[in-house]
Amino acid sequence: MAKNHGKQIKDDAKYEALREKGMSKEKAARISNTPAAGRKGGKASDLDYLSKDQLLEEAKKIGIKGRHKMKKSELIDAIRNH
C-alpha cells in the first residue's frame, strides 16, 4: 500500500514509483499530480505548439536557469526533462 504523502500529492503510488526510479521529489510530484501523465501516444506534445515567449514563461514557472539563452528546441527539452 502506498504511503500517504498528504493532499499535495494526488497519486501516492505513482509518486513512490517515480521516486524509486530516481526522480527528484519535485519532478515526481509534478508527474503524479498530472491527470493525463499515464497516457501514451506518438503525437507531439502541447509544448511543440507554444511560442518561444510562452515556453520562456513556462520555464520561468518551474525555475529553469539560463532559459533566455536557449533556442526553442532547447527550451522544450529543458521543460520536458526538468
TrEMBL record:
Rho termination factor-like N-terminal domain sequence ranges: 53-79
Protein name: Rho termination factor-like protein
Example GO BP: DNA-templated transcription termination
Pfam families for this protein: DUF7218, Rho_N
Residue span of region Disordered: 1-45
Biased composition range(s): Basic and acidic residues: 8-29
Top-rank lineage group of the source organism: Bacteria
Signal peptide boundaries: none
